[in-house]
Amino acid sequence: MVEQLAARLLRIGGIDVETRVMLPPAGGTGGRREIDILIRIRLPGGNEALYAVECKNEKKPIEAEYIDAFYGKLTYLGIPAENGIFVSRSTYRRGAVERAAAASVRLLRLTGLKDDGLTAMVLEAIQSVVYLLADIEEMTVSTSSNDGGPLFCTEDGSYAGNLMDLVHRAWAQGGIPRVLGQHEVVLAVPPHWRSRTAGEPAEVFEASAKVKVIGVVYTVVGEATTHTLTDHGTGVVQRGEIQARWDETKHRIVLASFGSSDELERHLQGLRGLIHVVARNVPMPRINVRSDWGRLYWPPSDQVLSTIVNRFDQGLPIGQPQDDFEGTVFDRVFDPVAAAYVARFH
């Protein structure tokens, strides 16, 4: 395991690394000796420099005898001792440090393995996405008729849209601040829209809404491993890597919502792991509406539109507060808008 990880770390930067290489002796006679890791550095003129790496997966500190054996191997193969690197997952005895210094052999430590030396230490890796949800709290419209309402039509009386469509368009186009908290927004009404009434369509003077932007934090707690090659003498990390894995079907998911930036930041800071990747201020594709029908996302999905149309056709109440119109289910906000529903902005 030490050899595999060390080789992987040494390859960072495109270095030519081979493992378990059999080399002939420098004198030309005698048996070949195995090098755990061989590094080839290409030099001008077609030459190359060889660096030999010895790896030990010992739980106890490395003794001087290990350095002696490695030094003997380097000499036998004709590799300069200063091109020798000794890697261990454990620390080094004083005698080993002194022997390595005398021979100019470099000592590195590999971190990130469990005590068994065979498996990596697994830590938490946290991935959070901060979604922004526009929640309509209040809508008003001023028209030339006392019975003008939230539904709009064209001059010929055909359906054009409603107040929720105007809020959604403002949200999609950035007309509502992407900042947590309550916002009062004057809505842009298309000039050809009229307020639908019992009689003639009424002129629309102004439309506005109070919208609360909520932060919904979707967090997946996954797994991470980290490994470093650290200089034993200086403590400086020479090579390092972090690998993280997130699988929403296996790992823990945390969902939380916040009305203020301070609360949201405290929540994010409380999520601790080896790494924490955060994607911020991702606007949700649909808005949330509190209606007499209950909560729903707007524009409607196929399921919600079908429910509304069927109840209307049957002369039934469109909905009751306890009915499920998706507005309390987080992932349904990403359902596509019903193809049959189109607001006529142009």
UniProtKB/TrEMBL annotation:
Residues 3-113 form the Restriction endonuclease type IV Mrr domain. It comes from the Bacteria. One of its GO terms (molecular function) is endonuclease activity. Coiled coil: none annotated. InterPro entries: Restrct_endonuc-II-like, Restrct_endonuc_IV_Mrr, tRNA_endonuc-like_dom_sf. Pfam families: Mrr_cat (PF04471). SUPFAM superfamilies: Restriction endonuclease-like. Gene3D superfamilies: 3.40.1350.10. GO terms for biological process: DNA restriction-modification system. This is Restriction endonuclease type IV Mrr domain-containing protein.
